[in-house]
Amino acid sequence: MAKTALVAGEQSGNAKPNQLAERVTGYYDQARNFLTDVRAEMRKVVVPNRKEVQATTTVVLVTVFVFALYFWVVDTVFNYGLTKLMDKLVGS
User: Fold this and answer.
1) Which residues form a coiled coil (predicted)?
2) What's the domain count of the chain?
3) What is the pLDDT of residues 30-54, one digit of tens each?
């Protein structure tokens, strides 16, 4: 980390060849560490089986239909109320 801060603080025009090599090596090390971490995290991923996928899909579909019904009822009630209010205000 100190090397990175030191290299970042220097101007690129005044960088010596060994400093440039350290900078490139630092980028390589950072990329390698990142990919190692990604690999470690991917080992922790659990793929659900068919039964779990079907169960969660069913829950999602039922929830979507329940919310759709709820919003349809609320929309219908508001539409009815606004229509009655506009009829009284306009006087038709």
Assistant:
1) none
2) 2
3) 999 999 999 999 999 999 999 999 9
